[in-house]
Design brief:
Blueprint lengths: L4 H6 L5 E3 L8 H9 L4 E4 L6 H14 L4 E6 L9 H10 L4 E5 L7 H6 L3 E6 L2 H9 L4 E5 L14 H11 L4 E4 L5 H9 L4 E4 L1 H4 L8 H7 L7 E4 L7 E4 L2 H11 L4 H8 L1 H10 L22 H22 L4
Parallel strand pairs: 1-8, 2-3, 3-4, 4-5, 5-6, 6-7, 7-8
Antiparallel strand pairs: 9-10
Helix pairs in contact: 2-3, 3-4, 6-7, 8-14, 11-12
């Protein structure tokens, strides 16, 4: 029922992909998702050297024999990743899927092709999806306005951006932003997607290395409890509303520079939030779908629940479409 070009391309049981989340998408979560029939995605940016990254790739391989991928961010960073070294490590460890994000991956496409790595590029606008197809990407992940992290600067919701992208390209489109359950999966497929990528839902899984106290707190939030920061720098990010996020927004309103904001928005502070459970220590990227999440079971249970709910939704729609 849920076989698509994405499940065939990546040899998956289900069209479910786990988002490559900084600090969280480590071996245990990646393997749990892949073992359950989806595509686990390791966060390359979590590891600051090729050696650390390759060690984690090896750890994933001890936990699963199923396909998994890697997320490589291509946007500028204070400590740029050794992209070529990371790609070489992926080739050595037999990784066959990469999700790129942040800027056009054209310069790295020959390296990916040489190693037999299929490329999904994350985009936030139709024109970027068309460019990804033009340079030879195998699929695109379309990130709608509702997503955690960086939704771009155009504020187009998934329900509009997704079908617009599907109409514009021939390669498979994966939906992201606002999807957290089986109803969302069916909606995404109905809009033309061939898979769904979920970050916030898998952030709220047992295997995600984040404080249980923080997860308990997040189950109390609604879809109204996120906000944007860094919009003044055209690097918009959706985060949980907290005192740090409000302070960053206020400073932006007063003309703060990136240098002024770095002490508040650095990733190390988000890592502290995740590890300690103290939401006051920094920003926490999170999508509007947090309003749909009320538990944090193992990833395999999340996936089985999503697929059961999706099957139920399809059955319900089928019954409602029958004539008396």
């Amino acid at each position: 029922m849920f076989k698509t070009r994405i499940t065939e391309m990546f040899d998956l049981k289900y069209p479910l992909i786990q988002g490559g989340m900084l600090w969280l998408s480590r071996a245990e979560l990646v393997a749990a998702v892949s073992n359950a029939g989806g595509l686990g995605i390791l966060s390359a940016a979590t590891f600051l050297t090729r050696e650390e990254f390759q060690k984690e790739l090896k750890r994933v391989k001890t936990l699963t024999a199923k396909p998994f991928g890697v997320n490589i961010p291509l946007f500028p960073a204070l400590k740029p990743l050794d992209i070529q070294g990371y790609i070489e490590a992926m080739g050595e460890e037999g990784v066959t899927v990469v999700e790129t994000a942040g800027r056009n991956p054209a310069e790295y496409m020959p390296l990916f092709r040489e190693r037999g790595i299929k490329v999904m590029h994350k985009v936030t606008a139709v024109r970027f999806a068309k460019k990804a197809q033009e340079i030879g990407c195998h699929a695109v992940v379309v990130d709608g306005f509702e997503c955690a992290g960086h939704p771009g600067e155009e504020d187009v919701s998934s329900t509009v951006l997704l079908p617009a992208a599907v109409d514009a390209v021939d390669i498979p489109v994966v939906a992201a932003g606002g999807f957290a359950d089986g109803r969302g999966l069916v909606a995404a497929l109905a809009l033309g997607a061939e898979g769904v990528l979920m970050g916030t839902r898998f952030m709220m899984s047992r295997e995600a290395p984040m404080s249980d106290n923080l997860k308990e707190y997040l189950t109390t939030l609604t879809e109204r409890d996120t906000m944007f920061v860094l919009r003044s720098l055209r690097n918009t990010a959706r985060v949980i509303k907290n005192d740090v996020a409000r302070k960053v927004a206020a400073m932006e309103g007063e003309g703060a520079t990136i240098g002024d904001l770095i002490p508040l928005v650095t990733g190390s502070r988000e890592k502290e939030v995740m590890e300690t459970g103290d939401i006051s220590r920094g920003l926490l990227h999170c999508g509007q779908a947090i309003g749909l999440i009320r538990d944090f079971p193992p990833a395999a249970e999340i996936m089985e629940e999503i697929m059961a709910e999706a099957a139920g939704a399809v059955a319900r729609l089928s019954r409602s479409g029958k004539t008396p």
